[in-house]
Design brief:
This protein is α+β, with helices and mostly antiparallel strands and 372 residues long. It contains 8 helices and 20 strands. Helix content is 28%, strand content 26%. Strands 1-2-4-3-7-11-9-10-12 form a 9-stranded mixed β-sheet, with helices on both faces. Strands 8, 13, 15, 18 and 20 form a 5-stranded antiparallel β-sheet that branches. Strands 17-16-14-19 form a 4-stranded antiparallel β-sheet, with no helix packed on it. Helix 3 crosses helix 4 and helix 6 runs antiparallel to helix 8. The radius of gyration is 21 Å and the shape is globular.
Length: 372
Amino acid sequence: MQRRDHPLLEATLGTARSLTSFHYGPSAGVGKAYIQASLHADELPGMLVAHHLRQRLAVLEAEGALLGEVVVVPVANPLGLAQWLLHGAAGRFDLASGANFNRHYPALTDAVWQRVQHTLGADAAGNVALIRAALRAAIAELPVATELASLRRTLLALAADADTVLDLHCDTEAVMHLYTAPALWSEVEPLARCLGAEVSLLCDESGDDPFDESCSQIWWRLAERAGPERPVPAAGVAATVELRGNADIAHPQADADARALLAYLAHRGIERGDATSLPPHVREAMPLAGSLPLVAPSSGVVVWLRHPGAWVSEGEPLAELVDPVSGDVTVLTSPTEGLFYARLTHRFASAGMSLAKVAGREARRSGKLLSD
């Protein structure tokens, strides 16, 4: 194992930070997997999963069972981890700029295409090597004017040449679920099986360029430009894994999740293990555009009638909104038939607040599909 510390741009005097990555297995092996935790710094289950994952990777490395490199970044956002306001963690948004830490990663397709458009050929593996070299060069040239830009460039540099990229997040109260692209579903479906994901949400472009899409979209966009005579495979398979809710932190559960991630790496050929035996799939994938929010029409106390994990009908009551001043009770019903998979921990709503999400089979939304 190698520990590498990556200095970040010092935002103000005396506040220098660094990002730490841990590297297991041979760097010149059969492939590379990159796993990071808590890019939204107040989403904590991924950190504990990374802790258990590192322990198991150390054993596998000592046994010679790692056939490729596995990079683990257990604390992907030291900036957000240091942000506390009135005794509360504020790790989702950069307080200096208001930017979401998992949005607005640079689109590098044009920069990479300019470097490789005249050198790509009929050899798919050779094209992948050319693109990865160009991608590393483009990332190295990204301007870094802020500490946040420094963090983004560092994370991209660690992940961009990986065959497998897993970004570990969580919701507030939720069941296990994940996000990926339709073009990658055949490669990510075994991950959903290993994790027991209750729903997988698919879209080509969710809006605002989150980290996982920044790592994967470039491959099919370059493939479209290159055409079939110059094949560009999907060499960067990426997914965002939502490890249930923020309070779902326990050693047995985190260890089971770490084992599930390693089972997926075995399926991807990076770890020597049983890659053929996969658990059954919990549920078919659904479009992210079919995930609809439950929105509070007015302010009040939220009383939940159903829990995440329930399959609900359109129009089925999910919660009551109680106005303790007027005595009015407003019933909030499911906006679609589907899986009630996530809800806020807040038990008081302001008007217009999105309180929960229900994943349906029918795509009903367009435009930006992720929450802020």
